[in-house]
Structures are given as structure tokens and as C-alpha cells.
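Please annotate the following for my students:
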Amino acid sequence: MNVRTGHVGLNVSDLDRSRDFYRRVFGFDVVRESDEEGRRYAFLGRDGELVLTLWQQSEGTFPTRLPGLHHLSFQVPGIEDVRRAEAVIREIGATLHHDGIVPHGEGRASGGVFFEDPDGIRLEIFAPDGAGDRPAPTPAAPTCGFF
């Protein structure tokens, strides 16, 4: 069987806030959305491809201590794309882990930024090359472990 990830669906507590966050940080377009009370959602994508669906079906913040999603990772072509995303993340005041762009591990060229969305869902934007000139935040563990 040949499989690949289709789109990712996230429960959010405030659709407007989350939609605006993901559009701003990732540059997604709204493909489809509903403002019907009790059935609010937004489909986000780029170039006609659905990437992320947001469903206003939750309250509170994401509980990292429970089984489930660890983090959501997005690959971009180059480190300049990561720098642009980092600037937006800092500008909007999102929680940023590791204080900026870091490699995936000691001696690795790949790396990116690790941060949280408005509901506390952990996110990563990385490039396959260009982060190797920085030290890894946790030399003995993968950076995407959010240790």
C-alpha cells in the first residue's frame, strides 16, 4: 500500500482566532468555511490543495500529558522560509520553544522553529538544510521532542 498524509484536522476552541493564526503564519488560503452555529469549521490550503481543517469543537488548551498528537510538522523549501515564519510567530506573540531556529539535533543541517498555536498545539516549521550553524537545544535528544 502506498500512503501519504492527506490533510490534518484539528479541534480548536476559537475558529476565528485559529483561522487567522494559521493564515498568517503559514500563508494558507480559506478553501471553505462554515459559520453555522454548532457547525463552525474552516478548510485551509494552498494552490487548491487542502492542508488543514479546523473544527470549533473544543474548549481549553491542548493537553500534552495525554496520549494523542505530539506535534505537527510542516516542511518548507529553505531556511529563508523558516526565518519568515519565525518573524511572524514573534510578531504575533505565539509561544516559541528553543528561542528561534535550531537544528533537529547536534550536527544536523535540517532544522526549524518549534512553537504553539493559540490552543497550545505544538507545531514545527522546518527546512532540510541551513540550520546546522546553530547548536542543538538538547544535544542528546531530537529537538522535535520538545524536551
